[in-house]
Amino acid sequence: MKKKFKHVMTLSSAALTVISAVPMSLVVSAVDTYAKETTEIKIQTNSNEKKQPTYRNVMYYGDWSIYDGQGNYFPKDMPADQYTHINFAFVDMDSNGDLLLPDQDAAFASGVGSGHEWGSQLGGIIPALAALREKNPNIKTGISLGGWSKSGDFSKVAADPIKRAKYVENVMQFLKYTDMDFIDVDWEYPNSVRQPDLVDNKNDEGTPDAGPQDRENYLTLMQDLRNALDKQGAEIGKTYELSTAIHGAKEKLEEHMDVKRLFDIIDFGNVMTYDLHGAWDEKAGHQTALYTNPSDPTSYSIDAVVDYLLGKNIDPQKIVIGAAFYTRGWDTVEKGEDVSQPGLFQPASATNKDADGSASKGANNEATAAIGDGGRMSGVWSYRSIDRLKAQMPDLKEYWDEEAQAPFMYSESTKDFYTFDNVRSVTAKAEYVKKHQLGGMISWMASQDKATNNSAVRDELTKAIKEGLFGKEALPVQKQDYDLRLDVDMDIQLGSTDSGKKGFELTLKNNEVLENYAGNALQPADKFYSTVKRPKLIFTLKDGATLARGDYKAGTVTVDGNKTIVDLAAVYDGRFLTPGNTYTFKLVRNDSHEVSPDQIESVVLEQYYDDKTQLSSQTIIGEAESNQAPVISGVGNQTITVGESFDPLAGVTATDKENGDLTDKIEVTGRVNTNEEGSYTLTYSVTDSDGNETTAKRVITVKKKLVTKNHNCSE
Q1: Which DSSP letter does residue 382 get?
Q2: Which of 14, 212, 321, 365 ranks highest by number of CB atoms within 10 Å?
Q3: Helix or strand holding residue 391 (H, E)
Q4: Which Pfam family is one of those matched by this entry (predicted)?
């Protein structure tokens, strides 16, 4: 059964933004050029406005990041102020289209360093990501579907209309329950048969059912997801995004899909321009080169695949290129004759052994190889561990390939060769994105980055990418203002309190009903959504009076002006109210007046992740207080003469009841040529912290200066 959602939509500028394919740098250039032809016009913009960032800084977060192998890296540890998108990896499915979590406990039970005990209603990565987004409104969170080892059922499900429809509906439900912002489809890969590699991963599905039919079925699935996202977004007042991960080599893309049709469907495509070379190759090479080195027999590079995509008339703003926060390596590689680039594009020998004893060209991994758990020797080390790798191999030296704009390492004593990204290479990639007006960068993955300044924040490469794309300015706010409402109400009775004084006996009721779902993903997601979490109740009385605690079950009661704030999370039994259950507590007036149920004007329910991070707010009694839009003043029509100076912001102000003075947030669009007669329209806009936008127009008329002759008697 599909659960119906109640919602309240607040009009947001994010829902109205028109995304331009023109990069901001070109807009600035146009303004500068025009300024040379006109009187200077001062236009102020709000750098933190709620609109699509010029570029994207997308980051994968794997659910195994929380364990020892990745240094117990939790969502709270991420430099979230540096990202625009965080991809939760991965959500799987079965052959019927039911959703599966590869690690349900990691997603919805683990403490993840949050202070929540294991199994708590707020336990797990997904609730932690929800909290992270609330603290960092510059990010969007989403789910990555499939992945390298979990793409085995895509072929069957996409080919069957009934299964495909079920899968799409399940994905939409999961997205609502978790309140995420986008879907990223990682089908690796359509029309590419691969048997499971159980030596490397005991849970690897492979893609044994892949075939030519995948090319069309993939696009059908993507279009169905697009349609469903747009429909659901319209219903709840939210703009969802759809992305996909695709191969980084031209011939693979031609095998997998019609890229032009794909990019017409999606918001952006994450081109996996990493793993382009590895221990499966006969020769060592760059796994993530920016440009093609002529000596590379495959010609793989970011520039090569971008050139291919642009040749297909793909919108460059939809192309997101990849960065590797890890190495790939070969065990025994000949030095070659070029002493400045030893080992590069040189033959490798299978002198190492995988966990099952089979011969391998790969170098040792950071983690000990075991059958079914990283059993293939691939030379994979996290970027953050490269210093430890160098310490184990003292003559492992770092080199730079100027043509490829890519680093690599080689040891003359062991003949080990490693390819990776570093600060210099990701900075070059960011510059490439801007030069070619691309959509941004995606990185695999957050836990593998290196901490800087002796902190726990792993951000060395992340920060280089962010600053390369955006500079040092704060990223734009992307949070959309809307609410998914729980079916919750309150019963008000009168009764005796612990002090013997007559007061209010209040029963909070959770009327939600948990649905029965196949698979292991939607059930915990439904429970997370449908449970009232760490509730605070804000009471307003009609006569302005305030309330106090009437029994211990009322938790902590504080007063702010004429509002009474009841924190039920201060009581163990009040922390969570699961579907179908109630919680009763008592309050008394702070004055001596008699109590009556009709004295309560409104009650607002707020839910929290922790003491400070609010997840949602809804009014359960009375009318919701509407946030008032800003007011713009001083924008009356004006007439000036040719050549007269004009400042469009002179005398213009913006105020807001909730936010105060917003004059410095005013944005002006339009132009006035003070050197030419005519009527010019300027549009003024300002947005408050709740996303309420006010616009106003004014007409500036430029007229010729009237010249009057002086007459005298001599004429």
Answers
A1: B
A2: 321
A3: helix 386-392
A4: Glyco_hydro_18
Among 440, 470, 500, give the residue marking a domain's end. Answer: 470
Contact 634, 668 (CB under 8 A): no
Overall domain count for the chain? 3
Give the global pTM: 0.83
681 and 577, same structural domain? no
Q: What is the pLDDT of residues 115-159, one digit of tens each?
A: 999 999 999 999 999 999 999 999 999 999 999 999 999 999 999
The CATH number that applies at residue 519 is: 2.60.40.290
Q: Is beta strand 348-349 parallel, antiparallel or unpaired with respect to 556-560?
A: unpaired
Strands (E), 29-109: 56-62, 85-93, 99-100
Q: Which domain holds residue 285?
A: 52-325+422-470
**118 is written with which tokens?**
């294991």
Q: Using CA atoms of 166, 169, 171, 172 in order, give the dihedral in degrees to the nearest 10.
A: 180
Q: For residue 707, give the amino acid letter.
A: V
Cβ-based neighbour number of residue 214 at 10 Å:
25
Query: Are residues 554 and 639 located together in one domain of the fold?
Result: no
CA separation for the pair 75, 60 (Å, rounded): 11
Using CA atoms, how far residue 656 sits from 120, 481, 626, 649, in Å, is 40, 17, 13, 18
Local structure of residue 388 (DSSP, 8 states):
H
